[in-house]
From TrEMBL:
GO terms for biological process: nucleotide-excision repair; SOS response. It comes from Duncaniella freteri. NCBIfam families: PRK00558.1-5, uvrC. Belongs to the UvrC family. This is UvrABC system protein C.
Length: 601
């Protein structure tokens, strides 16, 4: 199927989209929003518009009209659903059919009456009633409503029932009473106090405060099961499971929040990213991210003040209530600032901060897509900062020792250049001067041999040495550099395996780098590669030694003879089982007699 053509700028934006839930907006050539959509996976959903021809003519016309796009990331798919609804109502896009009218997602309302009703609605009226939701679909709202009606006898009629209404005897018992779905409050069979007590429990369920109810249902299930009333216990179990799956109200839409402005900050090195979100009637309708590069070590409160001034000037915003993580460095007496720690406002602030972080990620991806070397420079710059280096570590070498109870001790040296393995520069070392399992002395010997040779041959030295081990191995490496007069010329660190601590010379307290840091990942890759390379060499050397050890001790048998015999018989065991004539066929009668006699002495 042919693909729809798109501009290079639009193609680049799509290529760096995150694999997260969110809402995307398409714009035409005049900058008008022509479509708003939601996605569980932004990258996959947006890409699907352009990689095939659609069956719908309307969709094909939409794709041809797309000139640009933007998006907002959110924590969950439900949040994307609610944000999509609010943005469609705000922008009225040409290609959106649903949600353009006043119809919204369903809520459950508990009315403000002496005997409150509980029902589903899509319209919210400011009459003192309490609304819960919104729900992602009418089915889940109906299921929750069925649950509370099954648990409690709540009236479903539309009569305005008051104490005077009951005293006047105007009420009549209906079918719901006879089906045990209503307690008959209209005739006074249920008092206002009893009825409102049930309503309080219903409110708790709709708020998500269901721990007490769950305990009650669990107890009833156990009681019914012990009485062998399994069918009734199964009904309660279904109710229990339904309550457990019940989701609280949306993060993005909240009836407890009116019109507020939110500023989330992502601060990184000399750059700061400040996301602005405008909330109207509890829903996000606008999101903009500003970038700032520090020149005079400005603080986050100072940058927040700059951002508020810029947003006010460019978008014409008049602030009333502003949600921030910390107070901006400015005097605004007419503005109420909130620094929330929990609740809906705190969740909105978290969403804003997430969008600020995502903007930084998108910027880095764009730069690295245009210039692949930029990623390498960024990683090396991070390593230079983390490991306190004076220059970029473009050439790194890592050492690891391998032995089994002191036998066949070897060491490996792996080389990374520009944060990537340079396998042609890998080296093995057989330990010569150390007797027994002494990793510290082995490390000192290997570094001495390695860098003495590089200095003598005039070869370039690395900017960073990584030794696999803690303070002991690091001290041995430092002694070797001291003896060669290279201390201060080459930086050296040690990495301990247990908690991935980084040790520096002369510092007993290790550095704990963020587990997600690219610096730590490079060092871990170095350490793992050195371990793999060293173990492979140690295994080969040990196997070779075991295979020819008996032949090595036979006088008059050289390397060529040993190789010929092992090639023919595969092992010393099979060679010992062979007769003299079979050995003579390989190495001649004279050497065959010597080998046969040695193996059978």
């Amino acid at each position: 199927m042919p693909k729809h053509r798109k501009s290079a700028a639009l193609e680049e934006k799509i290529s760096i989209l995150p694999d997260t839930p969110g809402v995307y907006m398409y714009y035409d050539s005049e900058g008008t929003v022509i479509y708003v959509g939601k996605a569980k996976n932004l990258k996959r959903r947006v890409s699907s518009y352009f990689n095939r021809t659609h069956d719908s003519l309307r969709t094909n016309l939409l794709v041809r009209a797309i000139a640009d796009m933007s998006y907002i990331v959110v924590p969950t798919e439900q949040d994307a659903l609610n944000l999509e609804a609010s943005m469609i109502k705000e922008h009225q896009p040409r290609y959106n059919v649903l949600l353009k009218d006043d119809k919204s997602y369903p809520w459950i309302v508990v009315t403000n009456e002496p005997f409150p009703r509980v029902f589903m609605t899509r319209q919210r009226i400011k009459d003192g009633s309490k609304y819960y939701g919104p729900y992602t679909d009418a089915g889940s709202a109906r299921a929750t409503l069925d649950l509370v009606r099954h648990l409690y006898r709540i009236r479903s009629c539309r009569h305005l029932i008051t104490p005077d209404y009951v005293k006047a005897g105007k009420g009549r018992l209906c079918l719901d009473y006879h089906l045990k779905r209503c307690g008959g409050c209209c005739t006074g069979l249920v008092s206002s106090e009893e009825y409102c007590s049930d309503i309080d429990r219903v409110r708790a369920i709709l708020r998500g405060d269901v721990s007490e109810l769950l305990d009650y249902l669990r107890g009833e299930m156990e009681k019914l099961s012990s009485e062998l009333r399994f069918e009734e216990a199964q009904v309660l179990k279904e109710q229990y499971d339904l309550i457990r799956r019940y989701q609280a109200k949306s993060v993005i839409v909240s009836q407890t929040i009116g019109d507020v402005d939110v500023f989330g900050v992502h601060d990184e090195d000399d750059e700061a990213y400040i996301n602005y979100m405008h909330i109207r009637h509890g829903a996000v309708v606008k999101s903009v991210t500003l970038e700032y590069r520090r020149r005079l070590d400005e603080t986050v409160p100072q940058l927040l003040a700059y951002a508020m001034a810029e947003i006010s000037e460019t978008l014409g915003v008049v602030y009333d209530e502003v949600v921030v993580a910390e107070m901006p460095d400015c005097e605004m007496p007419d503005v109420r600032f909130s620094i929330p720690r929990r609740g809906d406002k705190a969740k909105l602030l978290e969403v804003s901060q997430k969008n600020a972080r995502q903007h930084r990620v998108d910027k880095v991806k764009t730069i690295e897509k245009r210039d692949p070397s930029a990623r390498t420079d960024r990683i090396l710059e991070r390593m230079r900062t983390d490991f306190r280096l004076s220059e970029l570590p473009r050439h790194i070498e890592c050492f690891d020792n391998s032995n089994i109870q002191g036998t066949n001790p070897v060491a490996s040296c792996v080389v990374f250049k520009d944060a990537k393995p340079s396998k042609k520069d890998y080296r093995h070392f057989n330990i010569r001067t150390v007797e027994g399992p002494d990793d510290f002395a082995s490390m000192k010997e290997v570094l001495t041999r390695r860098y003495s040779r590089l200095v003598n041959e005039g070869q370039p030295l690395p900017q960073l040495i990584v030794v696999d081990g803690g303070k002991g191995q690091l001290s041995a490496a430092v002694e070797a550099l001291d003896d060669m007069g290279l201390r201060g010329t080459i930086a050296v660190v040690g990495i301990a395996k247990r908690l991935e601590e980084i040790y520096f010379p002369g510092d007993s307290i290790p550095l704990y780098i963020d587990k997600n840091s690219e610096s730590l990942r490079v060092v871990q890759q170095l350490r793992d590669e050195a371990h793999r390379f060293g173990i492979t060499h140690h295994r080969n050397r040990r196997s070779k030694g075991q295979a020819v050890s008996e032949l090595d001790s036979i006088k008059g048998v050289g390397e060529k003879t040993r190789t010929a015999l092992l090639s023919r018989f595969r092992s010393v065991k099979r060679l010992r089982e062979a007769d003299l004539d079979a050995i003579a066929e390989v190495v001649g009668p004279a050497k065959a007699s010597v080998v046969y006699a040695a193996l059978h002495s």
